[in-house]
Amino acid sequence: MTDQPLLDIRNLSIDFPNRHGVVHAVADVSWSVNAGETLAILGESGSGKSVSASAVMDLVDAPPALITSGEIFYRGRDLLKTPREERRKINGKNISMIFQDPLAALNPVYPVGWQIAETLRVHGVDKAATHARVIDLLGRVGIADPERRAKQYPHQFSGGQRQRIMIASAIALEPDLLIADEPTSALDVTVQAQVLKLLKELQAESGMGLVLITHDLGVVEKVADRVVVMQNGRIVEAGTATGIMTEPQHPYTRKLIDAMPGRHGFEVQPSVAASDRPLLEVRNVSRVYGVLPGKVADIGPNAVKAVDDASFVLNKGETLGIVGESGSGKSTLARMLLGLDKPTLGTIRFDGHNLNAMSAAETFRVRRRMQFVFQDPTASLNPRMTVGQIVSEPWAIHTDVLEKSLWRDRVIDLLERVGLKADQIDRHPHQFSGGQRQRIAIARALALQPDVIVCDEAVSALDVSVQAQVTDLLKTLRRDFGLSYIFIAHDLALIRDFATSTIVMYKGQIVEQGPTEALYRDPQHAYTQRLLQASDAHLPTAA
Amino acid sequence: MGSFIFKRSLQSVFSLVALIILIFFLARMTGSPADLYLPQDASAEARFQFNEQYGFNDPLIEQFGRFLWGLLHFDMGQSLQFSRPAVDVVLQAFPTTLALAAITMPLVLLVSIVTGSLAAYRPGGIFDRFASILSLIGASTPNFWVAIVGVLVFAVTLRVLPTSGTGTALHWILPVGVLMLRPTGVLVQVVRTSMMTALSSTYIKTARAKGVGSRAIVFVHALRNGLLPVITVASDQAAGIVNGAVIVETVFGFPGIGKLMIDSVLLRDFAVIQAAVLVTALAVFVINIIVDITYALVDPRIRYS
User: What does B221-247 look like in DSSP terms, one character per residue?
Assistant: First the structure.
């Protein structure tokens, strides 16, 4: 063993020329990783964090990309000067890589066993030996019944299992270095923790180097030895993980750490006069698939209960967080609140009106008081409409709200309320960033002066620092307009400093609910405890 | 799978019935066969006799009833032009068209998949531009014009290929070539687009990160995913070959079902028109079933139950 690093990137610059000029995706970036070490590359979308790692694997398409300078040394050999065919032999054998979305990263039309075996096959492992090795690998990454499962296809596995399969394929030839590009971002919180644990275990066994590309400071804190922080293609800060978390030097790093949800105090539950009736009252609501609404007798033991006997209330000024992992029933619950789905059993009352037993005219009058903000602002804004048209559209439907001559002024007023500028009114959604688009969606939701806004994973798709800005906006609006929110999320930390009370859903049932602070400080249900353990929300509040 | 084919067959019965009704009445709107089969100065007596003999004097609905009854016994009536059962006439012509399609379609698939995949591998490259222009020309040039120009160039001027008929292998070159043109042009573009999508998928990145070679990336990883939309369009084109066959068989004097249909329409040979359309429809139905099965073979996410 010499003291040279396993992988050493020096002064790497990668440009992407486009119609408007040149984007310096990676500018003069240097980092290295040693055997047995975990390096985290931290950055938000567009920071260039993936591009430099992709260059290691020869995955940067040139053209259009242009590697303008730099060296990538693997065990002292400059990969950028190595012929493509030689590099192909290094890929998968010495250095391997896994990706963010394991469903997309696995080929849908081949069995998973075949895909793992392929890594072995292309590097010349004897055919007779591959099958046993595949079964062995699947078992090692925690897939039960590997003999049978090896013959199945990616769509027959859960998200966490798929990532385990990707890992099995990546470690098949015991590489020196594993590059993991956002390996846990697409997974549920508890699954995230399991996958990270598996990666660390494998690293301890084999002594491989691990490069972890992530936007998630929580992940960095848990597994990284060293960190480089990237912004706009440059490294703004580098150091040990603990050093960066405790004493960030660069303002951008400080901003990222400050934006980490769960770092601020709890929101206080507003006091509710006993005489006030709740704004929203959900009582014993179930949604059972394959059964007609009200047909209780048809519910057999095999019925799929997406939501099972859920009850809760939302009072004025309150923010109710609903947290749960995929399949917990939180989206089905949201769809019923939205009126896109009807409860099989139970009632949903809004300000005393039973939402599922109203005349059409009544529905028209009542529904407008409840508005929605969806997860993906790109999909929920019509790309052919201008911002002005999008925000004013509710008034075209509810004609009694606002005279047409006043629309434009009111839209400008709303845009300014959500932190956009008046002169952006005639632009189209694609001219805005993700966070700005979500602001447009919020402005649209505000147009009818609702009492309640339901946010379904409204900030989940946004970068951490943008997330913080949008939640801050929601908080301001709550104060200014006396709004109530139902805030659905899978991220416990986000809910922690935003929701005044919280509901935890698991397999269709509400397993725990109460004021947020009490629930986080003293979780009662085993699942809540597990969820808190797995996420970063249990971290002590920073000063 | 068996129950799936059964269900599909039941569904197709409805479209077949609609087709039968349509073709029966549409054919009779072309006029009276007596005008064509008897001399122009034939007496009213003779016309009446002719119509009586073939049942054309009966009310239309009665003729239709008789047609349906015959259909249940696999009897499609007598051909006027050949004085033989219409089914025999059609089944005699059918193998020629089937052979034409069976030679054409695999060649179309081979050429378009290879060309489209190579074009997609380097979009914007020289090969891609060349392929795009040629496929556009192929897809948009009228069949009959190419057929006639083909005869002029290869048969009349160069004298390397026969003008018409079926005798030797040489007789097949021009008809197959002309018939291939449009489906190949269309499919190259479909393959190119769908392979470009497949090649930009994350699983291709995974394969490259595993060290898989570029040939296997294109033809093992991308192609099987890229094939799905291709199968859909290819089945449509296969059915379209029947249309093409009408023109190609007429120009090259090929005794297939396409030429038979045109001749029968011109001669108001109702029984043969009906039989030919029905047989063609059945062939299209079989193609669709094969396509559905192919889907399930190519994509494990599709399962019929």
Answer: IIHHHHHHHHHHHHHHHHHHHHHHHHH
CB A534 within 8 A of CB A192: yes
Shortest CA gap A87–chain B (Å): 8
Residue A332 burial (CB count, 10 A):
23
ipTM for this prediction: 0.77
Q: Is A152 exposed, middle or buried (0-12, 13-18, 19+ CB in 10 A)?
A: middle
Contact B211 A93 (CB under 8 A): yes
pTM assigned to the model: 0.76
Q: Is residue A310 a contact partner of residue A282, using CB atoms and an 8 Å limit?
A: yes
Residue B305's pLDDT band (cuts 50, 70, 90): low
**pLDDT for A187-208, tens place per residue?**
887 888 888 889 999 999 999 9
Task: Give the amino acid at A452.
Answer: V
pLDDT digits (tens, 9 = 90+) for A105-148: 999 999 999 999 999 999 988 888 899 999 999 998 888 899 99
Model confidence at A541, pLDDT cuts 50, 70, 90, reads: very low
Q: Tell me if residue A452 falls in helix, strand or coil.
A: strand
Of A341, A361, A363, the C-alpha closest to A350 is: A363
The full set of domains in chain A, from first to last, is 40-61+81-259 (3.40.50.300), 274-369+492-543 (3.40.50.300)
User: Treating both helix axes as pointing N-terminal to C-terminal, what angle do B270-298 and B86-121 enclose, rounded to 10 degrees?
Assistant: 40
Q: What domains, with CATH codes, occur in chain B?
A: 86-298 (1.10.3720.10)
Alpha carbon distances (Å) from A77 to A9, A176, A426:
11, 14, 54
Say which residues have a Cβ less than 8 Å from residue B54's Cβ, sequence separation at least 6: B33, B78, B80
- Average pLDDT estimate for A484-488: 92
Q: A70-106: buried (b, 16+ CB within 10 Å) or exposed (e) per residue?
A: bebbbbeeebbebeeeebbebbbbbbbbbbbbbbbbb
- Residues of chain A in contact with residue B225, where contact means CB-CB under 8 angstroms, are 107-109
**Contact at 8 Å (CB) between A215 and A41?**
no
**Chain A residue whose CA is closest to B226:** A109
Residue with tokens 């804004």: A381
Intra-chain end-to-end CA distance of chain A, in Å: 44
- A38-42 sheet: strands from edge to edge: A95-98, A177-181, A209-214, A38-42, A226-231, A234-240
Burial class, B296, CB count within 10 angstroms (exposed 0-12 / middle 13-18 / buried 19+)? middle
Report the Cα A504 to chain-centroid distance in Å.
Answer: 18
Q: Is the sign of the CA dihedral A64, A68, A74, A78 positive or negative?
A: positive
Chain A closest CA to B301's CA: distance in Å?
Answer: 7
Q: Are A308 and A425 in contact (CB under 8 A)?
A: no
Q: Measured on CA atoms in the order A444, A446, A448, A453, is the torsion positive or negative?
A: positive
The per-residue DSSP string of A148-159 comes to HHTTS-GGGS-H
**Helix extents (H) in A171-240:** 189-206, 217-223
- Mean of per-residue pLDDT scores for chain A: 86
Q: For residue B127, give both structure tokens.
A: 């090969």
Contacts of A109 in chain B (CB under 8 A): 224-225, 298-300
**In the structure encoding, which two tokens stand for residue A306, read together?**
């997406």
User: Are B211 and A89 within 8 A, CB to CB?
Assistant: yes
Which residues in chain A touch residue B202, judged by CB atoms under 8 angstroms apart? 99, 101, 104-105
Choose among A45, A56, A44, A51: nearest CA to A26.
A51
A311, pLDDT greater than 90: yes
Q: What does DSSP assign to residue A352?
A: T
